[in-house]
UniProtKB/TrEMBL annotation:
This is Hydrogenase maturation factor HypA. Involved in the maturation of [NiFe] hydrogenases. Required for nickel insertion into the metal center of the hydrogenase. The gene is hypA. Belongs to the HypA/HybF family. GO terms for biological process: protein maturation. Ni(2+) binds at residue 2. It comes from Methanomethylophilus alvi (strain Mx1201). The keyword Metal-binding applies. PANTHER family: HYDROGENASE MATURATION FACTOR HYPA (PTHR34535).
């Protein structure tokens, strides 16, 4: 399960960051996950619940904010969402983004949609 290793990295990073504070309780950790990562949010929440056990994060919530895909084209100046191809014929498929310009077909840069980062931590410290 790909999600588990990603969440393990996030949990490690958050625990490392939390060492800087005198944390008494963690309420929630908010992460931003781009659509291009193809990570399943439910799987991530589940992995977080498992991996946070026995740490200061136990009992806190993982809040996932999606980041939608934004492409930028140098050729025609297009900036916006990708064209999606639906592979879901059997009802279980995913929509796959096309990483070329929907307007002129040229090469594009991915401006948004690849994120997988911690955005915010809702913590309580001893000073509160
Ligand atoms: Zn273009």
């Amino acid at each position: 399960m790909h999600e588990a290793s990603v969440v393990a990295n996030i949990v490690d990073a958050v625990l490392e960051e939390l060492k800087k504070y005198d944390v008494t309780k963690v309420n929630a950790v908010t992460i931003v996950v781009g659509d291009l990562t193809q990570l399943g949010i439910e799987q991530m929440e589940f992995a977080y619940e498992v991996l946070s056990q026995g740490t200061v994060l136990e009992g806190s919530k993982l809040l996932v904010e999606p980041e939608h895909i934004v492409l930028g084209c140098d050729k025609c100046g297009y900036e916006g969402p990708a064209k999606m191809i639906d592979f879901g014929e059997d009802g279980y498929g995913h929509d796959i983004p096309v990483l070329s310009c929907p307007k002129c077909g040229g090469p594009v840069k991915v401006l948004e949609g690849e994120a997988c980062r911690v955005k915010n931590m809702d913590i309580e410290t001893r000073d509160d």
